[in-house]
Write a structure and sequence with these properties.
With 92 residues, the protein is α+β, with helices and mostly antiparallel strands. The protein has one helix at residues 52-65; strands at 6-7, 11-18, 23-28, 42-46, 68-77, 83-90. The protein starts with 5 loop residues before the first strand and ends with a strand.
Length: 92
């Protein structure tokens, strides 16, 4: 499944979850997603992806401190309708 690539709207992090599928997921407080994937607010990063550790730490820090972030969706959608991301940035 393919969607569009680009930055999401600014949002707070609702959850960061590690799972057994060699990835972690980030859920944002969003109503729409630029990617067009079925799930509008859940994103994933594979552990083996370059920068995945930094993305996890950034998302966890934003969750704890209630900071707004944007994620860059790649256009990839998984079977659950989650969007693949390649970057997370904190907003002032």
């Amino acid at each position: 499944m393919r969607g569009e690539a680009g930055w999401t709207a600014p949002a707070t992090v609702a959850a960061v979850e590690v799972n057994q599928h060699a990835r972690f997921t980030v859920r944002l407080n969003l109503k729409t997603n630029v990617s067009g994937c079925r799930d509008a607010d859940t994103f994933y990063v594979d552990y083996g992806r370059a920068g995945s550790e930094l993305m996890y730490e950034t998302a966890a820090d934003a969750l704890q401190k209630r900071l707004k972030v944007q994620v860059y969706v790649t256009g990839g959608c998984d079977l659950n309708g989650y969007s693949a991301i390649s970057a997370i940035r904190l907003l002032p």
